[in-house]
Every structure is written in C-alpha cells, then in structure tokens.
Amino acid sequence: MGTWDIGPFDNDTAADFAGDLDETALEEREAMIRGVLERAAGPADFLGIYDGERAVGAAALVAAQHPDGDLACSNYGPSEPLPELPADLRMLAVDALDQVISNRSELAELWAEAANWSMWRQDITRLRNVLDPPIPPQEEALFEI
Q: What pLDDT is recorded for position 43?
C-alpha cells in the first residue's frame, strides 16, 4: 500500500483520485464523487483496498463542505474547486465509511496490522461524526417516571 500518513489523501490511490477530479470538468465532479461512494457503500461481499481508499477521500470532500467540517484535503487532495455537493451525499458517505471500517474491507484489514491503526480509525470516526453527528446525551429527563 503506497501510504505515507493517515489522512484521506495520504496514499497513492486517493491522491490519484484527487488528480482525476482536477482533470474532470467541474460539472462532472459531483458524479465522480457519488460514483466512488456508491461503489464503496454497495452490497459487495468484500471492499477492495483501492475502492476503500477512494471512498475515504470522497467522504472527506463531502465532510469538508459541511459547516462543522474542516479542510480535510492535504497537499495531495484536489487543487481545483469542487461544486457545492448535495446534502444527500452525506449519508452515502457515512454508508461508505461504515463499509471501509467493516470486517469486509481490505483497507481495514491492512490498517489493523499497522502501528498507527488507532489514529487512522479515529480519523475515519471524526469524518463520520462530521457527516452524521452523534446525538448528544440528554442531561435532563423529558418526563418524570
């Protein structure tokens, strides 16, 4: 795996995906991102490493446009602007990330063997929480029992 760090674009596959996005017409970039996420979120028996790496990059691009998101793209992410991505991509990105970290993912298998596995997993969880924020615990009961 040509990976140098835990970031969404810190591997050859995702960096190449970013380059492909840069070379694609602006109006076609959303469809590319959607296609990557749909492929990863689909009902496949096993998610290959390359589809997983592209899905993490695509999910980071969706998360970056969320109000609570941050610029998730390192020097290896797309350098050209993206169109405003529709909100429905958030849940598709969540589904893709869930597949990426599942026991049916080659990427998760490889990261599980790496020394910085927990940092990678925390970064995926951070992306997922931006896309689908967890419901905070309630401090007061709504009803008395």
A: 86
